[in-house]
Each structure stands twice: as structure tokens, then as C-alpha cells.
Write a structure and sequence with these properties.
This protein is α+β, with helices and mostly antiparallel strands and 108 residues long. The chain has five helices and two strands; from the N terminus they run ββααααα. Strands 1-2 form a two-stranded antiparallel sheet. It is globular and about 55 Å long. The termini are far apart.
């Protein structure tokens, strides 16, 4: 078997060169997420789930990482104004970005 070794560059921002798209607005302020998320975020989230024995810690960590500090703070500051379906949509979008589409979601 022949292959080219993979080079992992630790000095690069994992989101460098990746576009962003809006996920939610607070009043007229737009908050965005990357259009693509490096696979390592899924692996680290799985590790956090295993360590904690629940997905709550991993979900919080993912939201903070993918949304960014400002967007997470804005969401938290306005959390009582967010409906359950809206929160489910935000969390679902983040999970899809990180883990990809599930088999059930992909079936038509």
C-alpha cells in the first residue's frame, strides 16, 4: 500500500478560508456559523460525551466553539426569548455541521 503522509498544521485557524452563513439574528445583529466544520470537532465532542456520560457538556462545548464567544453570549443573554423549536433548530444546525446528516434525516 502506498500513500502520501498527511501533514497537520497546528498553527492554522481551523476555520481559516471557510465561509460563514447566518444561523440566527438578535434584533438586526446577524450571528453566523461556518459552512463546514473540521472533523476533529466531532471526535472531540464524542470524547467529551464519553467522559461526562451525557451529551450536555459536549453540546455546550460545541455551541461555544461553533457559534463563537459573541454569538453564544448573545444567545444566552436572550435565552428566555428563544422558543423551544428555535433552540432545537439552532442545536440541530450545529449538530448537522459537526456530525453531518444522520441516516434518518437523509432518507426520503
Amino acid at each position: 500500500m502506498t500513500y502520501t503522509p498527511i501533514r497537520i498544521k497546528t498553527s492554522e485557524d481551523p476555520f481559516a478560508g471557510i465561509g460563514r452563513r447566518p444561523l440566527f439574528y438578535v434584533d438586526e445583529m446577524e450571528f453566523t456559523v461556518p459552512v463546514d466544520v473540521p472533523a476533529g470537532y466531532a471526535l472531540e465532542a464524542i470524547e467529551k460525551m464519553a467522559e461526562a456520560g451525557s451529551d450536555a457538556l459536549a453540546t455546550r462545548w460545541l455551541m461555544m466553539e461553533i457559534l463563537g464567544k459573541d454569538a453564544y453570549a448573545a444567545l444566552l443573554a436572550n435565552s428566555y426569548r428563544v422558543t423551544k423549536p428555535e433552540m432545537a433548530q439552532i442545536q440541530g444546525a450545529i449538530r448537522e455541521l459537526v456530525f453531518g446528516e444522520t441516516e434518518e434525516e437523509g432518507k426520503d
